[in-house]
Specification:
Elements (H helix, E strand, L loop, with lengths): L12 E4 L2 E4 L10 H5 L2 E3 L2 E4 L2 E2 L2 H14 L8 H14 L5 E9 L13 E8 L7 H6 L1 E5 L21 H12 L4 E5 L5 E4 L3 E6 L2 E5 L8 H12 L4 E4 L11 E6 L3 E8 L2 E2 L4 H14 L1 H6 L1
Parallel strand pairs: 8-9, 8-15, 12-13
Antiparallel strand pairs: 1-2, 1-7, 3-6, 4-5, 4-6, 6-7, 9-10, 11-12, 11-14, 14-15, 15-16
């Protein structure tokens, strides 16, 4: 299998602090505050047939996430929206992933960072399904994570902050080394929370259950899928879910910009069979995000 092209060595353009620059020239200094202290927020977005799905919601969340880390992104939602569209166009992309990033710069190093400049970049690249399609259709296998999502009294859990993903990377690696696709994380109380980069849903007797997002991101895709489910007449209950309940559910699936809607076949010792609700919501979601392609077909 060929080695993937490293992200620092690609053709194309990245928007950085007010202009499109050649991809390889989009650089920061080694003493950038965000590199040392995690003072960065980001978004993950997808474009389908050239249209970025729920773009303004992502741009607003970037701004809100930065406020949670005590800094302000120096651009409006409308400006960020335009930047994202310009980056997709400049790189001649249609179906792609978009990554806005805002961070504290290198003007000051130390815990205090009030003198730092706030930077913004937006990159975009081709990216297919987060999980291989063959694996996705039959359901992915998850293991249980050891790290837990933190108490919101100890971290800005409503921000999509770079530092909050450190334990996600550790658990994703642990899962992959053991032959799993991902890991299910509990929260600090021992309740089911989310996976390393996606929200989770369960089905029991035709009713959909999902954890209450009181200490992790209430994902944009999560909210979209809840709306789709309700339009289909499915009951959706948001509540505290304990790990000992997992054996009670018949279906399970993940949602996220990267994961889209991905059925689950296994969480540790628990088994699930993707069925009507998983298939319906997967199809409904893909029909929603790909209207241009569907119309062309």
């Amino acid at each position: 299998m060929p080695e993937p092209t490293p992200f620092h060595d690609r053709d194309g353009f990245i928007w950085l602090d007010g202009e499109l620059v050649p991809w390889r020239d989009a650089k920061i200094h080694v003493l950038t505050h965000a590199l040392h202290y995690g003072s960065a927020v980001f978004e993950g977005e997808r474009a389908y047939a050239g249209e970025i799905f729920k773009l303004s919601e992502h741009s607003q969340r970037l701004i809100d996430s930065a406020k949670g880390l005590d800094f302000e992104v120096p651009y409006t939602v409308e400006q960020i929206d335009k930047i994202c569209r310009d980056v997709v166009a400049a790189n001649n992309l249609s179906d792609c992933y978009i990554r806005p990033l805002a961070w504290r710069g290198s003007e000051q190093i130390g815990v205090s960072a009030q003198a730092t400049k706030i930077h913004l970049s937006v990159a975009a690249w081709e990216w297919g399904s987060y999980f291989p399609m063959e694996q996705r259709l039959k359901g992915i296998r998850l293991t249980m994570a050891k790290y837990r999502r933190p108490d919101p009294a100890t971290a800005p859990s409503k921000s999509k902050a770079a530092g909050l993903y450190m334990i996600c990377t550790i658990e994703k690696h642990r899962a992959e080394r053991a032959g799993y696709a991902d890991a299910l994380m509990l929260d600090w109380r021992g309740r089911v929370a989310e996976c390393t980069g996606a929200n989770i849903f369960f089905v029991k007797d035709g009713v959909i259950h999902t954890p209450d997002p009181d200490c992790f991101l209430d994902g944009i895709t999560r909210r979209t899928v809840i709306d789709l489910a309700k339009k289909r007449g499915y009951e959706v209950i948001q509540r505290a879910i304990m790990p000992e309940e997992l054996s009670d559910f018949s279906e399970a699936f993940l949602t996220g910009t990267a994961a889209e809607v991905t059925p689950i076949s296994e969480i540790g010792e628990h088994r699930f069979k993707p069925a009507e609700i998983c298939e319906t919501l997967l199809n409904d979601y893909m029909a929603l995000v790909q209207p241009a392609r569907k119309a062309a077909e």
